[in-house]
Each structure stands twice: as C-alpha cells, then as structure tokens.
Amino acid sequence: MQPQAIQETYPNEWSHCYGCGRLNDHGLHIQSFWDEARGETYAHFIPRPYHTALPGYVYGGLIASLIDCHGTGSAAIAMQQEFLRQQPEASPPPTFRFVTAALQVNFIKPTPLGPPLELRGQITEVKGRKVTVAISLSAEGIVTARGEVVAVQVPEDWTLPTG
Fold this sequence. Notes:
The chain is of the alpha+beta class. It has a single domain (6-153), classed as Hotdog Thioesterase (Thiol Ester Dehydrase, Chain A). 17% of the residues lie in helices and 32% in strands. The protein has one helix spanning 60-86, and strands spanning 33-35, 40-45, 98-107, 117-127, 130-139, 142-153. The chain has a six-stranded antiparallel beta sheet with strand order 1-2-4-5-6-3, covered by helices on one side. The chain is globular.
C-alpha cells in the first residue's frame, strides 16, 4: 500500500502553496512522508531543465524552496507522531498545518540538474506549537545542501483572506 503524503491530508483551503500545494497547478507538488524504520521524513523531487542556475546545476532558490516546504511538512508529520504517542487509539490523527518562522540553508556543493533529489528530515525539537527540523538534500547519494526549518503551527482561529 502506497503511503499517503502529509500534504494530501491538508484541507483544500490550505493546499495552494507553491511548494507543496496539491491545488496549485504551477507549483512544485512536494510530498513528504514518514519513514518509520529510520525515524525521519523524506521527499523526492526531480528538477526540470528550467530549474537551472548555471548549465547543469539546480537553481539555489529551488533548493531553498524544497527545504522550506519539506520542513513544514515534516513539522506536520512530527506533530501527528506526537499526537499518536499521546493518543494511540486516535485514527486518523488530526491534520496539523505549519508555516515557516525561520529558514537557514547551507549550500555544500553544486547540485546537479537531472538526477532525482532526495530530502531527509530529522525532527530536532518539538516545543509547544514550534517544530525544528534539520534537512539534508542529496543527489545520487551525495549531500549538496543542508538546512534548518523552524516551523510554527497555524492557529486554529487563523482565517484566510477572502476575495
């Protein structure tokens, strides 16, 4: 059975993000999953030729976007895991939605354009409504960027603008 990406559980009104929104026709459609065996999150992305910086290499802004959106997805997964630890009988667990409070990206080496990219997220802190995630991005098994995302859970009473 194919696992469900956390982004597939977001309500429609929260599914328009350029990076991970399933309802954004022009978006990247990042999908984040929980790897139970490794105790971490993962996502894959295949950069397209127009995601170029210099010939043969991925644009750094795309790398930052991937780390950003996988970070908020990882935070949602972490909160679901925490919820299930406290209430194991709850099925399915509620959906939690996060936004980025801080993003740090370190480019270690140029990321080649062409091979699939893999993101791996380690949850480093869950504190109230805040989750911190350390993320590595690799191409062909070689880490090319590392990042940290501090994500904050969207308040339940937060409303979206209309119009």
